[in-house]
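Hi R.,

As promised on Friday, here is the backbone we talked about, encoded as structure tokens. Could you run it through your design pipeline when you get a chance and send me back a sequence?
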């Protein structure tokens, strides 16, 4: 059968994750990388990963691992990658200049009906597309996944000011067809939504540790044994909605003044860039909890847990 073709630029961690998501949904995938060695590694890793998921009963989609692998091809020619592709997912390293030069290359190669989506975690789409000659015709946007995308369904879709509504909607439907759960931002904003919320949490966690109120282990427990359990099911507004007899309006009527009073005590944004005593202390405590040589093992535990959690969430 002739399936829609997806092109993936960059065959590292995130490029491979997208390849797996698209192949699971039956799309034909082609991966491009500037390094041949990376493509070879990607092919080996995909083979290993898909067979291991199949053994665990955690493979997505209706196709067998071998059938999914057969859908994934590799090329070192950008021209070949873009030919007949309905969607290009860009997964090159997080360096603005690198992304800029790649997008100007793509600008010269693409017709108007291919959407180019960046996996970027941090760059607003206007940053690397404003200089493009054909930015009005060039259908580009951000489709930001969370790691590991195979088990975390959220995708943030973010437009540049010149992204068309049609490109946004096509990408949203494409993500839904993978079984992902997209949200589309009305306009671009620094940090998108996920990192804005994540950084607000990191800032407050930092303050609580720096001021000696909680240890790293305890502050992380507040999320992993407390708030995080609710948030694995509900967002913070629905949580509030359930937490007052009359729903969310009642919640803010009861607790709004308290929220404002506590919020007024937060103080300035911590300087997390400075390599001062606070960071040294946080690093020491984190490394006591998980020594650096055990990070891979801990990541594997996280992923195994997420497999179970993804199954559990399907029941609700
Ligand atoms: P990575 O370093 O694992 O992979 C990058 C790949 O791009 C490498 O294979 C490299 O050889 C290739 N590459 C470099 N220059 C290239 C070029 N000009 N053309 C084609 N390929 C090129 O990086 P990653 O972790 O997969 O991140 C990729 C993107 O995904 C980044 O924008 C990152 O911000 C975003 N992202 C990463 C995560 C994460 O947790 N790692 C999560 C969400 C989004």
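Update: got your reply. Pasting your designed sequence below so it's all in one thread:
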């Amino acid at each position: 059968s002739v399936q829609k073709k997806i092109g993936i630029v960059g065959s590292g961690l995130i490029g491979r994750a997208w390849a797996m998501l698209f192949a699971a949904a039956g799309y034909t995938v082609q991966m491009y990388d500037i390094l041949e060695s990376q493509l070879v590694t990607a092919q080996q890793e995909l083979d290993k990963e898909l067979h291991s998921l199949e053994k665990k009963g955690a493979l997505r989609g209706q196709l067998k691992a071998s059938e999914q692998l057969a859908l994934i091809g590799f090329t070192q020619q950008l021209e070949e990658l873009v030919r007949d592709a309905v969607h290009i997912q860009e997964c090159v390293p997080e360096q603005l200049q690198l992304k800029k030069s790649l997008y100007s290359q793509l600008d010269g190669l693409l017709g108007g009906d291919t959407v180019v989506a960046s996996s970027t975690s941090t760059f607003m789409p206007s940053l690397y597309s404003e200089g493009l000659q054909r930015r009005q015709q060039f259908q580009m946007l951000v489709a930001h996944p969370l790691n590991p995308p195979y088990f975390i369904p959220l995708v943030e879709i973010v437009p540049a000011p010149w992204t068309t509504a049609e490109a946004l909607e096509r990408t949203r439907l494409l993500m839904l067809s993978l079984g992902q759960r997209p949200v589309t931002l009305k306009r671009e904003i620094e940090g998108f939504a996920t990192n804005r919320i994540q950084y607000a949490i990191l800032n407050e966690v930092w303050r609580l540790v720096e001021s000696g109120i909680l240890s790293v282990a305890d502050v992380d427990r507040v999320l992993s044994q407390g708030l995080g359990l609710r948030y694995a099911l509900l967002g913070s507004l629905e949580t509030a909605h359930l937490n007052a007899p009359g729903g969310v309006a009642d919640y803010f009527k009861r607790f709004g003044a308290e929220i404002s009073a506590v919020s007024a005590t937060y103080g300035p944004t911590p300087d997390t860039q400075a390599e001062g005593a606070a960071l040294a202390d946080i690093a020491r405590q984190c490394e006591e909890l998980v020594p650096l040589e055990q990070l891979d093992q801990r990541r594997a535990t996280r992923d195994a847990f997420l497999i179970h959690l993804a199954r559990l969430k399907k029941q609700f």
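One thing I noticed while checking it: The longest helix spans residues 36-56.

Thanks again,
M.
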